Amino acid sequence: MTGGPPTNADQKHLDGYAAVAFDWGGVMTKGTFDSSAVVALAALVGTTPETLDDTYLRLMERFEVGEYDLPGFHSRFSAATGTATPIDAFRAAFLGAVRERPAMYALIGSLPANLTASACCRTTCLSCATSCATTRA
Prior knowledge:
By secondary structure, this protein is mainly α. It folds into two domains: 1-31 and 100-137, no CATH class; 33-98. It has seven helices and two strands; from the N terminus they run αβααααααβ. The two termini are 22 Å apart. 19% of the residues are buried.
C-alpha cells in the first residue's frame, strides 16, 4: 500500500483476500494507548507518569485479557494508588487519552467494498468503545 488511497497496483495485492485488520494502538492512534493513558491518569490523581507506570501496567495486563471490566479496573486502580476518583472522571481520562489518526480511517474507508476491514485492539471491546470499530461487516 502506498499510504494513500489504494492504487491499481495495490488493488492487485488485495485480490484473494476477504479481510484486513489493523492494530488499533499505535496504528489507528498516535502513540500507544498505554503511554497516553498513563499521562492522563497521572494528571487525574496528581502524580507523575513515572510513579504511576508500573501500577498501571500491572493492572492493565489483567484488564486486557478480560479479567475485569472498566468499573473493576477503576476500583483496582483506586485501591492500588490510594486515590478516590469518580468513575466518570476516570472513564473520561482513560478513554479520552486516545489520539486517533484520521488518515488511517480514511485509508480503511478507501479499501474495496468487498473487503472486510477492522481495527482491533488487545483491550476488551468495552474499554475502548470510543474507537475500536469494524468499519464494514
